[in-house]
Write a structure and sequence with these properties.
Blueprint: E1 6-15, E2 20-27, E3 33-40, E4 46-51, E5 57-65, E6 70-74, E7 76-79, H1 86-98, E8 100-112, E9 121-132, E10 144-149, H2 153-156, H3 165-183
Parallel strand pairs: 4-9
Antiparallel strand pairs: 1-2, 2-3, 4-7, 5-6, 5-10, 8-9
């Protein structure tokens, strides 16, 4: 049976606008002790949204990514503001990033990114029954919105512009969820 380790001496060793780098002492149930470091983002987590124009067409964006220093093909995403639920944040991000809102939002699951050293959590949301609506967001430039077919997913995931694992996993989840919806 797994027994959670005991954390002590959790200390912020560096802080940026996006992350706190923390050091922590970890004591395992067998008495072994280690020091870990982790990135702990401030805030309430993030959302990643799969906007479906219809049962087959997903809307994706090209957005500049500082980590790779290039434009990446990805799904709509963003942080959850104070007082927002993940579904509210998902709809807000859709409206700001792609110019659509959703009448139907379905929470899929939460995902982590590199849980060995990051504590961030991303809530995956399927957005359907879209309608046109826009609002100004925090993007430094307009985002390019592109359409892709879920029937071409197997080739899409090998597109050199689509490298984000969360987006790839979410696309497969959406394809399966829509398949189940259509068979019910």
């Amino acid at each position: 049976m797994r027994k959670k380790p005991i954390l002590s001496n959790v200390t912020d060793i560096a802080t940026t606008r996006f992350f706190n780098i923390q050091s922590m002492d970890v004591e395992f149930s067998n008495g072994e002790k280690r020091q870990y470091e982790r990135l702990k983002p401030p805030g309430n987590g993030a959302v990643l949204v799969i906007p479906m124009l219809d049962d087959e067409t997903v809307l994706m964006i090209y957005e500049y990514s500082g980590g790779t220093n290039r434009y990446e093909l990805a799904l709509t995403k963003g942080k959850i503001d104070d007082g927002e639920t993940p579904l509210e944040a998902a709809n807000r991000e859709l409206i700001e990033e792609i110019g659509y809102g959703a009448k139907k939002l379905t929470y899929m699951k939460s995902m982590s990114i590199a849980p060995g050293y990051q504590s961030s959590e991303t809530h995956i949301v399927l957005a359907q029954d879209l309608y046109r609506e826009s609002a100004e967001g925090d993007e430094p430039e307009p985002l390019e919105v592109v359409k892709h077919k879920l029937s071409n997913l197997e080739s899409l995931v090998y597109d050199d512009d689509l490298t984000e694992a969360r987006s790839i996993a979410a696309l497969y989840m959406a394809k399966e969820a829509i398949k189940r919806q259509l068979s019910d």
